[in-house]
Amino acid sequence: MKKLLPFLLILVLILSACGGQTTEKNEEKKEADKPETITYESENGPVEVPANPERVVVLSSFAGNVMALDVDIVGVDSWSKMNPRFEQLKDVEEVTDENLEKIIELNPDLIIGLSNIKNADKLKEIAPTVTFTYGKLDYLNQHLEIGKLLNKEEEARKWIEDFKAESKAAGEEIKAKIGEDATVSVIENFDKQLYVFGEYWARGTEILYQEMKLNMPEKVKETALKPGYYAISPEVLTDYAGDYMIFSKNAEGDTSFQETETYKNIPAVKNNQVFEVNAKEFYFNDPISLEYQLEFFKKSFLNK
Q1: Do domains 37-151 and 174-302 have the same CATH topology?
Q2: What positions does the domain Fe/B12 periplasmic-binding occupy (predicted)?
Q3: Cα separations in angstroms, 60 against 19, 76, 96
Q4: With 0-12 CB in 10 A as exposed, 13-18 as middle and 19+ as buried, what is 78?
Q5: What's the CATH fold of domain 174-302?
Q6: What Cα–Cα distance (Å) separates residue 265 from each residue in 149, 182, 235, 271?
């Protein structure tokens, strides 16, 4: 029996080693079985893209979607770069659709942009390039498509489900507080012009009108609902102002209208029901921006 014990011990060690090798081989096989590329069905047809992109250039609009899915960006547009909420982009190279040499130097494995970008054919020679037409998809399906493109569809779906549920619950609380019939308008100043917004042009409009089902003033509905936005002069803002106003404010733009008697006599202003936010933080409707906007609305309407 004493002679048998060392033999059994050696046998156990050999079997354990073999089992470990088998596990390692299985893991290696799993890694080897993972595809290096996938085919994404873009609006312009199928595009072969990396299964796990690691060096993405975003030329317009979608930086927040990419970052929300934990994919690295190596080049980005100026509008995204200036967003204070996008701290991750601080050291990322700023590029445009005309900076072909700079984009080549960044060695991207995927390029994403809007359908109106310049040099699309040349960009495709640098890396797989996928474009989207702004507004063709609603903001949630747009994020889902970015998820499919980055091979992270399930993560995108989960975020969408959670965000819709949270927005709906917050909307019910807000309506209970401000009243079912209360109206909310979204305005923004740019240069010497004012704009009002419909329900799908970022600035928090998707949350307020689509998810929370808050009411849009009739005049805004008539002019801005279909095109997404509508330019007005400060003198007629009274006609477009809701019981509550979200003011997406460009501090460097003309804000002198706020000092006029016309503005000061708007009921929302007199009742302290104007909520100001930095316009640069409200330009987009990606998950990072939307989560910030939702928290802003909770805090503003509900003091949360």
Answers
A1: yes
A2: 54-304
A3: 50, 7, 9
A4: exposed
A5: Rossmann fold (3.40.50)
A6: 49, 18, 12, 10
Provide the pLDDT for residue 20. Answer: 56
> Using the 8-state DSSP alphabet, how is residue 215 labeled?
B
Q: From residue 220, how far is each of 39, 179, 303 by CA, in Å? A: 42, 19, 26
Q: Which of 162, 187, 165 is nearest to 274 (CA)?
A: 187
What pLDDT does 33 receive? 55
Per-residue model confidence (pLDDT) at position 13 = 47
pLDDT average, residue stretch 88-115: 97
275: tokens are 């909520």
Average pLDDT, the chain: 92
Each residue's pLDDT tens digit, 32-85: 556 799 999 999 999 999 999 999 999 999 999 999 999 999 999 999 999 999
Cα–Cα distance measured from residue 69 to residue 202, given in angstroms and rounded to the nearest whole number = 20
Confidence of residue 191 (pLDDT cuts 50, 70, 90): confident
Range 37-151 classified under CATH 3.40.50.1980: yes
- What is the Cα gyration radius of the chain? 26
Counting runs of H as helices and runs of E as strands, what totals does the chain give? 13, 12
Domain parsing of the chain, residue ranges: 37-151, 174-302
